[in-house]
Give the backbone structure.
Amino acid sequence: MHIGDVTIPAVEAVFLILALGLALGFEFVNGFHDTANAVATVIYTHTLRPHYAVVWSGCWNLIGVLVSSGTVAYSIISLLPVELVIHVGSSAGFAMVFSLLLSAIIWNLGTWYLGLPASSSHTLIGSILGVGLAHALILPGHHFMGGVNWASTKNVGLALLISPIVGFCCAGLLLLLSKALIKNPALYRAPEKGKAPPWWIRSLLLFTCTGVSYAHGSNDGQKGMGLIMLILIGIVPGLFAVNMNADSVTLQHVTSDSQKVTIALISAAGPAGAGQAAALSANATTLVTNYVGPGGQLTPETLPAIAALNQQVTATITPLKDFSQLSPEARSALRTNVYLVDEGIAKLLKSGKVTDADAKTLLTAYKTSLDQLTKYIPVWVKIAVAFALGLGTMVGWKRIVVTVGEKIGKAHLTYAQGACAELVAMCTILAADRFGLPVSTTHVLSSGIAGTMAANHSGLQKETLRNILLAWVLTLPVCIFLGAFIFAMSFEVIFHVLGIK
């Protein structure tokens, strides 16, 4: 199979098609599992008829995906062990991709069938943790706890833990504030059967549904993008390892900053920095990989090693007008170097090891420039994910909608409750998207509805809440197990049966 100047062996071409199908399948399931939350309020307040609601929500999911930045996509990838990200085209890399996708789809379909609004974000992250831990156990020379990037996991875990609390508290407080400021009693009554709300209430609910759908697309859609990019980089690195659309101006800017960064790193390493960088050139990849990996510590060799690796990046990019001048193999090698330098700088900045203000500014700007070379999302990937997510929204919404609309509170959802829950969910997800953090639409919105029910003294259905909480609690451990088990089985098949190393 030939794509551009790259030839893909038949076995790897089959893997590519299967993996892309699974990634889009995950987003399709995500659509009818998660986005059903966005349409529940407009359906149960008779703002829109069900079929109009899901089509509307699906379209705004699509728009949200298309305009997303890609930051969340690469924050998901950062949870994986550095070695797997660098060598994603190996047998372990292929096994990783299939394990992540299969375990996430299995759990999402199971909870959807039972009508439980579980989190696709938790599902995917649990699968990533399982794969990382299994990878560390299976391959020799790896420490079990080193199978996961715990620093990134902590940040993502906090976002997933805090966001439902924000949803519950803020939605409840917003409802109380609305009651104090807006005295129209129609807003706080349950909808009359078969009768649409007044136009101004209908407009408000339609706005919040639109906002949640858009925010869901911009945040959750990126998880599928990240997985697809991982697949493409692993199987077709010659085409996707670096951003082939980067122009000569971008490359010149990177080269200029790169030389300044090398000087700054060598200077920070001390008087012997230049000599160390030259001496460590051959071993720089291993040293920087160890540093950016879980538990990696700053040593006297770290700064010279990053500087040496950065010199290799500079030497590769300086004579180029665009990346088509590099061979497919050279593009893959360049991505590895850029990725390690990028992650090394990020860890230096986060750890507070760089204290000079000018050096911080330089390193931050350079990291942003490097991100443009490797952390990108092609337009066709966005379009494919957008359609998968949008179509999923239009197909399997009903089971989750019934749970959210009828079974959380003891009383029927009022206009104000629906609007408050969705407004808080929209703002929370968009804020998380701004900071590149994956959050659960399901958790935020379900918690928001529960918060409005509690604030309104409407009562909560304990059985439903128990089942939802049980699904939330079980998602991580079950998906860790599924991810680890499927990784072990698929690694065995790919490595020993198909002979991919």
